Amino acid sequence: MIDFSKKPLFLAPLAGFSDIALRGVVKRFGCDVTTSEMISANALCFKNEKTLKMLEKNSLETPYIVQIAGNDEEIIKKAVLILNEFDFIDGIDFNCGCPATKVVKNCSGSALLKDLDKLCKLLEVIKKQSNKKFTSVKIRLGFDEKIPQIIVKKLQNLDLSYIAIHGRTKADGYSGKADYDSIREAKEVSLVPIIANGDINSQNAQDVLNLTLADGLMIGRASIGNPWIFYEVKSGKKVDEKIKKEIILCHFDEMIKHYGTRGALLFRKHIHQYSKGLDMASAFRDEINRIDDVDLARSKISEFF
Q1: Annotated binding residue 251
Q2: Is 3.40.630.30 the CATH number for 4-235?
Q3: Which residues of 61-85 are buried (b: 16+ CB within 10 A; e: fewer)?
Q4: Has 98 been annotated as catalytic?
Q5: pTM for the predicted model, two decimal places
Q6: Residue 67 assigned ligand-binding role
Q7: Is residue 216 a known part of a binding site?
C-alpha cells in the first residue's frame, strides 16, 4: 500500500481540519497516505459518538491511518482493540509530537519524548494488540533539546512501518524554521523509513527530500486552503484557477455530505483560508458568515471563486 521507493506524500493529522471531507479531497489530487485527526485513546474507550464518527473514512482513502494519543498502557490496549473492529482502517499511528499544553499536561503527545522507555512500551502495546497492516509513530526532534538519533535508535527494534518526524522540538512549538539537518541525522541511523514533516510546501518539497534523504514527505498546514498542493509537488505544475474553484466546491459538497447542513457552518474556517489574499475577500467572508442556507452559501462561493 505504501511504496517508499516513490517518496510518498502524506497528509498530516490536523486537529479541526484533516477530517473525512478534506482527506477525500486531497486523495483526488495526489496524496498517497491520509491520517485522521488525532483521537484520544481515552475518548475512544468510552466509544463516544463524536469520536467514533471521526474514524469514518472516505471511499478514496487507501491506505487510511488512524492516529491515537494517550499515556496509559491499558487504555491504549482497549483503544487498539476497538480500532481492530473496523476493517477499513489500515494502520495505527501513535502521536508523540503534539505540543499542545492540554495534551502535554496529560503526559501524552510530545511529553513522551521525555520518557523514551515509556514511549516504546506504549508502542509495543499497539504492535502486540493491533491487527492492522501498519504501525507508525509521529515524533518531534525532542522535548526541549534535539535528540533525533537517540529517539530513532530507541525505536529501531519495534518493527515500525515508518517514523514521521516534525523538524522542531516541543519547546519550539511552531516558531522558527523546521530543522531538516536534524531529520537527516535521524535518517542516517534509522533502519525504518523516515517521513519528513514541517514547513513543507510545493516550492521546497524536492529540496527537503534532498536535504533529509527522507523516504517521504508529510504535509500539514500548507494543505489548508491549498489541498491541491500534493498535485503541485508531484507534477511541478500550478493548478489552474478554474480547477481550484471545482476543488473548493467539491470540498464544500463533501462537508455537507458528511455533516449535513452544519457542514456549511464548519466550512467557514476553510473559506477563510481559500480566500486569503484575494480581492474583496474580507467582504466575502463577512457575507458567508451570515449565511446558514446551504444552497445560498454554495452559490455565493461559486460566484466569488
Answers
A1: no
A2: no
A3: bebbbbbbbbbbeebbbbbbebbee
A4: yes
A5: 0.95
A6: yes
A7: no
